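Follow-up to my post from last week.
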Amino acid sequence: MHIERTQRASNKVPFSLRGKTLSMETTLSLMVAPFVIFILVLNYLPLLGWSMAFVDYSPGISIFNSEFVGFRFFKEALLYTADFPISILNTFAMSMLGIVFSVVPVILAILISEIKNDKYRNILQTATSLPNFMSWVIVYSVAFSFFAQDDGIINTFLMHFNIISTPTNLLGNKDIVWFSQTFFSLWKTAGWTAIIYLGAIAGIDSELYEAARVDGAGKIKQIIHIMIPGIMPTFVVMLFLQIGWMLGGTSFEQIYVFHNALVHDKIMTLDYYTYQMGMKNLNFSQATAMGMFKTIVSIVLLFISGLASKKLVGRSII
Amino acid sequence: MKTSLESKIAQICIVIGLTIVALICSYPFYYILIYSVSIPSEAVRGVYWIPAGFTMQNYIEIFRQNDILHAAFISVSRTILGTALGVFCTSLFAFLLTQQRLRFRMAIYRLVVVTMFLNAGLIPWYVTMVKLGFKNNFLLYIIPSAIGAFYLILVKTYMEQIPPALQEAAMIDGAGPFKIYYKIIFPVSMPVIATIAIFMAVDQWNTWLDNFYLADIAQLQTLQKLLLGYLADQQAMVMSAMSKMQQQSSNSVKVTPTSIRMTITMVVMLPVLLIYPIFQKYFVKGIMIGAVKG
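User reply:
Got it. Predicted complex:
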């Protein structure tokens, strides 16, 4: 016992590596080193690529041999192209719609929490959250099977019962794109987000409901005065996070799978435009500049949003 | 009694409303299922609640195609290997981050958290990947995804709740960090590790962007990307697959482009469709662990 106490008191824990005894600190440092390198190489090293935004870069030529152009690509994108502002508009529109409809999962959660039958509530949760775990490719395949002009089930149904005479082309209709994309996004994520809110609802002290009932409050009053304030913190965090992610709100995968020439003008987001510039037009400099723009603006937005959140509701996003 | 009637009506309305929502979310998958087992020529007339005829021919034809078979192999491989590597790396890294004795512990942790907000952008990422040798390399599918900030924080938060006495006892017995990790911490953290394992597996199965940007050779195509090809490129890919099937098959069941698409979709959906309902509570529990304690 005496020996063990001494061992515990010292800094050195015997750990053999080829006969040498290493201290705990050294062992831990060695073990964590590969992971730190991993993080640095995969997440921070690419940042050096931001230098591509300031030179006239062509793939193949070393960056040091490229001509330095300062902020030319940023200016070009903002002032001289039509597509960049359009992509910002589309991104902004769809993000805003997403924010407006972010109350849907909350309502869904409140309604589901009112179901008394446990089994059925479980089935509802599973059914509504299932789409969240399908890839956007699957979501597109599903949307395609429903709304395709040629043999989507919707068109087949409407034509069969003579409700319409020519098929609709929902997936090619650019005027409704902002709304249809918001719908698909909701279809995919509302159920799972509702489960998160259901967790928050479950965390509300049940005594509060008792007290309200004793005071004569009906179900609706209980929901308004207890449940909603209980969910508020979670909702506000989600809201301010979404505002911070305004420029990156819509997933690139979603936009890519639903993209076609007919809806291009309205569906092209900043991500898609960056992809087009960089991977299809091979304009690395321009695309890097746009990526930089997006990241920096997002960080600023998140920061402001976080401050606003703290000021308005006393909670920060992180 | 008035309130009782009101509340009963309210309950009925809620149940009906939610059932409609649940159907909107689940009927599409059912539709694809019944279409994929329908006889293609009859399905054209409209499939709504039950299959039009019944045949497994669609599936047989699909799996006769080499590209689909191989893509399935790639997707399954990346799911198994990627999840295994990811679980190991994430849990070990998280464990190390809970060790008070780790030098620069807080700095390293902040380094990881910042990556959630700091994104270098598509092109810098692409160039880095190419320079690191990940282009057309299977390792692309399992290495970059081995550590993610979100899962790392989830596991670390869970591990911090483990009573320190367990670890101290092991240290008295002279165990080094790695032994503490695999003999004590890893087994005790099973709930959260199981959770991230499931999430990672689903992520692996669903990911196709890395394939899209960095792998263009046929041997590395994943099922998701292949399906996307069949959906987007209706003419070329589907027609060539169809003609191959007509040649190979002596069966009278003629496949249509739509039935091919439905069946491939079904194959890609099936794993998640089966796993999720069974493990749903683990998905939910896992997120709650992180949310409540974090």
